[in-house]
Specification:
Number of strands: 0
Strand content: under 5%
Helix content: over 70%
Order of helices and strands: HHHHHHHHHHHHHH
Shape: globular
Distance between the termini: 29 Å
Family: Belongs to the binding-protein-dependent transport system permease family. FecCD subfamily.
Protein name: Iron ABC transporter permease
CATH superfamily: ABC transporter involved in vitamin B12 uptake, BtuC
CATH architecture: Orthogonal Bundle
Number of helices: 14
Organism: Listeria weihenstephanensis
Keywords: Cell membrane, Ion transport, Iron, Iron transport, Membrane, Transmembrane, Transmembrane helix, Transport
Radius of gyration: 20 Å
Pfam families: FecCD
CATH topology: ABC transporter involved in vitamin B12 uptake, BtuC
Structural class: mainly alpha
CATH class: Mainly Alpha
Largest sheet: none
Amino acid sequence: MRKNWILAGIVVVLMACYLFLFMGGSPAFALELRSTRLIAIVFTGVAIAISTVVFQTITQNKILTPSIMGLDSLYMLLQTSLVFIFGSQALMRAGSGQWNFFLSVILMMGFSVLLYRLMFKGNGRNIYFLLLVGIVCGTFFSSISSFMEMLIDPNEFQIVQDKMFASFNNVNSSILVVAIVVFAVAMLYLMKFVKYLDVLALGKDHAVNLGVPYNKIVMQLLLIIVVLVSVATALVGPITFLGLIVANVAYQFLKTHRHVELLIGASLISLIALVGGQLLAERIFHFDTPISVIINLCGGVYFLYLLLKGAKL
């Protein structure tokens, strides 16, 4: 737990630097704008970190993230379909309101519930069957999105392309309030199942032998994961590799199997990555490079490192 206090100290310093450095000629306006972005960063970072750690515990695989279920691809399919059917103006109007947020969250959750029904309906099917179906559906959604992107006007394609990268630069405060409420409900529900995570990490057979109702617990945990990922994606856009980075750095830095510490540590590392990345994007790259590009670049390299490290074991 001492390491988590160190991480918390770094987070506080980074947040103070982000809020109060280089405020320019209008400190009140800058502080209000940065505060909104910082709140979005906190809820997005914690949602992605916790959902990834719980997902990796359920799947017992440390190189998987919830995006493998095709949620990011489904989100991009929705945004591309809006432009393809109604035009870019419809997407811009939707992007400034709440209904696009609710539509994205409901669509992703509905898709996940359909996957769960497939998973738990048949005998002998397990979570790896769910992942396989998710990969196939994600590829299908990406193919349809690519097809529609080839047909739309190049100027409208540019607007769709902006939706492919997460950004904290234009966070809508009305959407942020709704996202916080949904996030808080999901986190309160998750608290009920934290005590099972250490046992679930031992595997299905051990968990069942120790009296854990495995299928029931896993199904509810997957629903919480989908809610957290959906809220984060609909709020700022997809950040594919963030969860992979923060979860694995938390495992290596904390060197513990206690999920209470892992969840807190991964959340703090996620905040360090996002606040530090946003500082780089604003002060070094002058808003020319979205934070998701920096994180995905680092995450891609780290993913290759994990694959090479696993191949040597």
